[in-house]
Amino acid sequence: xxxxxxxxxxxxxxxxxxxxxxxxxxxxxxxxxxxxxxxxxxxxxxxxxxxxxxxxxxxxxxxxxxxxxxxxxxxxxxxxxxxxxxxxxxxxxxxxxxxxxxxxxxxxxxxxxxxxxxxxxxxxxxxxxxxxxxxxxxxxxxxxxxxxxxxxxxxxxxxxxxxxxxxxxxxxxxxxxxxxxxxxxxxxxxxxxxxxxxxxxxxxxxxxxxxxxxxxxxxxxxxxxxxxxxxxxxxxxxxxxxxxxxxxxxxxxxxxxxxxxxxxxxxxxxxxxxxxxxxxxxxxxxxxxxxxxxxxxxxxxxxxxxxxxxxxxxxxxxxxxxxxxxxxxxxxxxxxxxxxxxxxxxxxxxxxxxxxxxxxxxxxxxxxxxxxxxxxxxxxxxxxxxxxxxxxxxxxxxxxxxxxxxxxxxxxxxxxxxxxxxxxxxxxxxxxxx
Length: 434
Known about the structure:
Layout: H1 2-40, H2 48-77, H3 84-89, H4 91-96, H5 104-116, E1 120-127, E2 130-137, E3 157-164, E4 167-175, H6 184-196, H7 198-270, H8 272-300, H9 303-307, H10 310-318, E5 325-330, H11 337-357, E6 363-369, E7 373-380, H12 394-405, E8 409-415, E9 419-427
Parallel strand pairs: 5-6
Antiparallel strand pairs: 1-2, 1-4, 3-4, 6-7, 7-9, 8-9
């Protein structure tokens, strides 16, 4: 019923346009032929020259008058709004003629709704392989299209994919008025709008992708800034610890050694026997000082890692582990110093975390090499923890920062049954050892 009524209104508009064209032809004939004939005193019969002039005027003006009449009559029958064909002809200028490119989807949704007479309209963009809602008209939260996505089977909901060169750029959606479906003319208009929307949606999609990439880059930049700040803080803390250890340990031994040697020099003339005994005691003190300094240097960067490689350095380190530890190696060679250092300190940090927090009984440390990769993993049989609820501490952050600074990736898996696994994968070319 509604469809017939709307088609009748459009037929009425066509009849009005036809009547207007007939009136225009008659008006031109009356003004030029009859009026002109009266001016020149030729009223008995139509003047041939004036008839030709009237015909030329009608021929030259017919197209413009017809277009103007189509606009006027269509607006009369559509209550003052633009007709569907007028919307289609002005679609591209209306969409791309605005001041702000970011408003393209919103203007498109408004033109789509007003042109089809729909209750609401949506514009969806295909960004990174996923459909994302770009605009809704009307924009109010109570919009009939709110909460629905392409593919939902809702009453009165029409969808058309926008394609260009076989690629899906987005989806146009309209929501019909209750019990008022789109007429065939409006359906063709909907299809025409979808055909014209390709370039517009491609530009809007590129902008959305750029915004998405910018947000992702901003997030990565912020993570990098925090990572660098943590590295700086860790280095400051390590320097303070080293300064404290040197002051409290090696420096005190060296001060005592210097005082006792001066005392031995003083006693050498008065009590040679006591001076000899004091010198012998300083030999032992010097040995203790050397051991203290060696221990400190190992804490900074173990010489075995430079001289003998990762396997020997970690085998020596696990000898001091409070938990029984098993070291397994496969196809291991020598790698750049930065990679070996990252793997070494990551493994030490993981073993220390297992000893402190996991209540584990044993640790398994694996080193696997390859021509262009170095992998290290530490598995314990402890209680484990929930990665989703437990807040990452400084140890986990330090491991991640060390591995990522070397271009690698860190994976942490933990469960109450199987304990915790810390695995680092570090890309790098294996060195040739002469």
